[in-house]
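Posted in: Structural Biology > Protein-Ligand Complexes

Title: Requesting predicted complex, WTA in pocket

I'd be grateful if someone could produce the 3D structure tokens for the following input. Sequence and ligand are given below.
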Amino acid sequence: MSESNSIESVLHETRVFPPSAEFATRANVSGMESYKAMVAASEADYSGYWADLARKNIDWKQPFTKVLDESNAPFYKWFEDGLLNVSYNCLDRHLATQSEKTAIIFEGDDGKVTRVSYRELHGRVCQFANGLKSRGIKKGDRVIIYMPMSVEAVVAMQACARIGAIHSVVFGGFSSKSLHERITDAQAVAIITADGQFRGGRAMPLKPAVDEALTMDGCESVHSVIVYRRIGASIELDDDRDIWWHDLFNSQSSVCEPEWVSAEHPLFILYTSGSTGTPKGVQHSSGGYLLGAMTSIQWVFDYKPTDVFWCTADVGWITGHSYVAYGPLALGATQVVFEGVPTYPDAGRFWKMIQDHKVTTFYTAPTAIRSLIKLGGDLPKQYDLSSLRLLGSVGEPINPEAWMWYYNVVGQGRCPIVDTWWQTETGSHMISPLPGATPIKPGSCTLPLPGIQAAIVNEAGDEVHDQHGGFLVIKKPFPSQIRTIWGDPERYKKSYFPEEMKGAYLAGDSAHRDADGYFWIMGRIDDVLNVSGHRLGTMEIESALVANPLVAEAAVVGKPHDIKGEAVVAFVVLKGARPADAAAVKKLAEELRNWVGKEIGPIAKPDEIRFGENLPKTRSGKIMRRLLRAIAKGEEITQDTSTLENPAILEQLKEVVR
Ligand code: WTA
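-- Reply #1 --
Done. Output follows.
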């Protein structure tokens, strides 16, 4: 399936699947009339609507009296004088009623299953929080978490929240350089990591990347590295700086009074790619963030106390924050946490786990769905998936073909699919079906959640209602939104609230609405690629490439990919001459791919590298990216090339080196 085919099929998509009467009757939001009533209530009294939800969902140590403070827009504040603790809301408040309920069913890469009750999880979080305190870590300090998917990763995040430390989780697949960039930007005082991680039957070290990052400049702020033993690798510990998790943990008490913080106290920073420069540290609040995570699980995932919830995202991404580490725990849910990969030991792993743990609610990314179709479209039929009642999709547009397979083969035509549109910056779902209300259409994320005022506007910021679409914006501030970019408030304003948008939040996606008002996401409007649901800045990959001594210049574009959604194509100009023979070119391309893997992380490795003596440029020296995109797709160049300084270069760049 190429992009043009998939866009075609989306544009011609007319199938509609209303919720079954059976699902609708039992749903938290039942029928479109209920949804419309919620929307109307939120519009009639916007801040009152959110305030009621915040009182109902969150246990406040001290109730808030102010709801929304817009006096310093776009630096919005919600529930600011309210005091709470997020970890208290996720753990302590369940102890009286359901302390023995399973909070986490952890399945290791090797299939070993461990169950942790709310009582145990609470104890472990308190114990680890005391350990952090014993290292002098306190409210407001930044702590990097660089860990595999594990109960301990969740414990580490919750323990930071408990003492008011601000965590920044770095995905375990990022390189030491990416890690270093985040440590220095956040000026972290501590790093919580593991000796390594298991993935697909292989043990892979993690701690060496931390050591390497800490040898680079600017990490003087880091005084502690806490190492969880997962793979049993022999690693070096620095006596002054490093300590084993178990050594820190075992001597601590399991009583730890939570640190009561303002609702606006930063809960975490999470770095994500933007269109320019280095990754942005997206800063989230405590109160508003928690509220968004909770309400979306109640509405979109139709949460019931009997559910077994499974979100497959890594805690290194926002999805793993809101729908693994915080949201499900705040609701007292039982959830699955999985260390491994969907294809090990075979492509039936997800389906087997759904069967074994009787998962009711399954949330994953289109890229996983597409790769599992390819590896075994019939495999789900070999497992008992009758426990499932709801399916979710996140991270990128889902093409109708993959949607139909998910619906018919995994969901057996019984489970609604919630295609949830949101971002690192929004903290929780923004546009999504409510499964007991919204009739769903394959490929559309449908309608905004109650209290979210999404719209499509043109370049002047005026709302458009035609089929061509425009920029996706959110008109009013909402509780779970980004508060600022860590250390760079100006960039926050410029990126998300450019003047033309007249105060609305600019999401960075283009979208259109159909006659029913349904939203269809078309893609990014900036230089951000979405590769397997991961955000990558083309600029970041370009800077990684030009940091290589052999490279003079580089331009990176995306190209449609059957499984990953988008693939990375790099156009490279070498400092010296292009190697003459094909084998040498191939070797060099491989070298550069590995270089990018080391600079950023394996997820950013270009799928294709093409060498040219130059890049197509205008006479003023601007790289013509639209031409590069066409070349990458293998399209005939029918575009106007009259402004091109060096047309001969196009022929060279058509040559692919894999
Ligand atoms: C894209 C992930 C279409 C979009 C939660 C957005 C989607 C970016 C969807 C955010 C969806 C996310 N349909 N596109 N359901 N969900 N996207 O910050 O381009 O990693 O801007 O957050 O992913 O990616 P992020």
